[in-house]
Design goal:
There is one protein chain. 28% of the residues lie in helices and 21% in strands. It has 449 residues and is of the alpha+beta class. The strands form 4 sheets. Strands 2-11-10-5-4-3-6 form a 7-stranded antiparallel β-sheet, with no helix packed on it. It has a 6-stranded mixed β-sheet with strand order 13-14-15-16-12-17, with helices on both faces. A 3-stranded antiparallel β-sheet has the order 7-8-9, with no helix packed on it. Strand 14 (319-324) and strand 15 (327-337) form a beta hairpin. It binds FE2/S2 (inorganic) cluster (FES) and fe (ii) ion (FE2). Fe (ii) ion is lined by residues 206, 210-211, 380.
């Protein structure tokens, strides 16, 4: 970004490895995000299994905006602003099926599933300019599908979805993300700014301290000690079980069971070779088992060979996927206020095509210290309220980032500054590929703004 652009952004990131605290609570900064960031970006509006049948519809809310996302008769997906053109009543709350379109509960104006106004009660009482055909239709919202989800963008000028989601999309296509379905879906209210909440998941630096159960001896050989393949296998199994229990998924129970069946495999005494043989073998077993069940699953060893076996992908500004073997966790974040965030987690896995499944209920948000939250996110959440409060400390001015391993936090903040400076889409879209990546262990990079 040029110096001139920077001047227009309050609390902008002038020193890349320092993030000013006001960005996480200042009401004016939050208002700028609401005006200049959120209405211009592609957002994950729903998983497609929420609208499995023609005319199923779901409401997506972001800040004070509400969008109807709806499955049309050709099984395409389209979206409209959720506002009656008469006097502004929201037409849809939650989700449902709109067999005959939408009828406004106030004065009964009707809209077809194409958004076209089909009925005005006592139309002769309106002047012509207030009841013009076309002008009383629902306002369309940009909507596209990808990765098993519907995406919306409130900006008619925004580039198409695919231009805004690389290289994340290519990697997740290789993972066959679109063939995963949710096994469960939870949501949480976190008393912290949306960026602070996301940043708890953008680096690995916290793992040793925050998740001590993931410090598993034997997974990596001691420098001078002898390598024992059996100890290695046991520690790998322990790790997989701990991840499965900690996330209530992600490493799926069926993958853990497959790993347990492989524990008698002969491994060489060379640690690096032993690890790669173990990984390759387990990958093959997972793929073989899932394909035997009729699931679409990528060849995990091919993913590894092509450098796409990433444990996490971030999609600006609010979506994460964390694939592990057959399955994945997925996160979405939305601001509820300067210091409050709604976070959702979906636990995704493979299902056979056509397998009948009950639709998951829309989750009631839990407080982030609710005992039902799985153990690993509980640990992540435990820091966030304390961090949000700590930021207000008078002697604290800015976060100091490790430029080598917490760099993604700086990178995406500098992209946010690009939006807040009102840069045109063609400049922003060129910065996105540096951001839509695996954020873990990433350094500060030039994002071209
Ligand atoms: S506000 Fe919708 S019909 Fe009056
Ligand atoms: Fe964590």
């Amino acid at each position: 970004m040029t110096a001139l652009d920077r001047l227009t952004v309050p609390y902008g990131v002038d020193v890349p490895d320092r993030i000013r605290k006001e960005r996480y609570y200042d009401p004016d900064f939050y208002a700028m995000e609401a005006e200049l960031l959120w209405p211009r970006v592609w957002q994950m509006a729903c998983r497609l299994e929420e609208i499995p049948n023609a005319r199923d519809c779901v409401e997506y809310q972001i800040l004070d905006q509400s969008v109807i996302v709806l499955r049309d008769d050709d099984m395409g997906v389209r979206a409209f602003q959720n506002t009656c053109r008469h006097r502004g009543v929201r037409l849809l709350e939650g989700r449902g099926t709109c067999e005959t379109g939408f009828t406004c509960p106030f004065h009964g104006w009707c809209y077809g599933i194409d958004g076209v106004n089909t009925f005005i009660s006592r139309p002769g009482t309106f002047t012509e300019h207030n009841a013009q055909p076309g002008d009383v239709d629902l306002v369309p919202v940009r909507c596209e599908t990808w990765g098993g989800c519907a995406w919306i963008n409130l900006d008619a000028e925004a580039p198409p979805l695919r231009r805004c989601i690389e290289p994340f999309a290519t990697i997740m296509d290789a993972w066959r993300l679109e063939s995963m379905r949710a096994e469960w879906w939870y949501s949480f209210r976190i008393p912290a700014n949306w960026k602070l909440a996301e940043e708890a998941f953008m680096e690995q630096y916290h793992v040793l301290e925050t998740h001590p159960q993931l410090r598993i001896p034997g997974r990596y050989p001691p420098r001078n000690g002898a390598f024992d393949p059996q100890v290695f296998i046991e520690s790998e199994l322990h790790y997989l079980r701990t991840m499965n229990e900690g996330m209530a998924g992600m490493v799926h129970a069926s993958d853990v069971a497959l790993a347990e069946q492989q524990q008698d495999i002969e491994l060489p005494a060379d640690p690096a070779l032993a690890r790669s043989i173990w990984e390759e073998h387990l990958n093959d077993k997972v793929v073989e088992w899932h394909r035997g069940q009729g699931h679409v699953v990528p060849d995990l060893n091919e993913l590894e060979a092509s450098g796409m076996n990433e444990p996490m992908g971030y999609l600006f500004p609010h979506f994460f996927v964390l694939p592990m073997y057959s399955s994945a966790s997925s996160y979405r974040f939305r601001p509820l206020g300067p210091e409050e965030t709604l976070m959702e987690i979906w636990s995704l896995t493979r299902f056979a095509e056509g397998e009948e499944r009950e639709q998951l209920p829309v989750p009631e948000p839990w407080s982030c210290d609710d005992p039902r939250v799985p153990p690993i996110p509980t640990q992540d959440f435990s820091n966030l309220p304390r961090q949000q409060k700590g930021l207000h400390g008078r002697g604290f001015e800015y976060m100091r980032l490790s430029e080598q391993i917490e760099g993604h936090i700086s990178n995406y903040h500098r992209l946010i500054d690009g939006y807040l400076a009102g840069l045109p889409h063609d400049r922003l879209v060129d910065a996105l590929p540096a951001i839509n990546v695996n954020p873990l262990e990433r350094g500060i990079v030039d994002i071209g703004l």
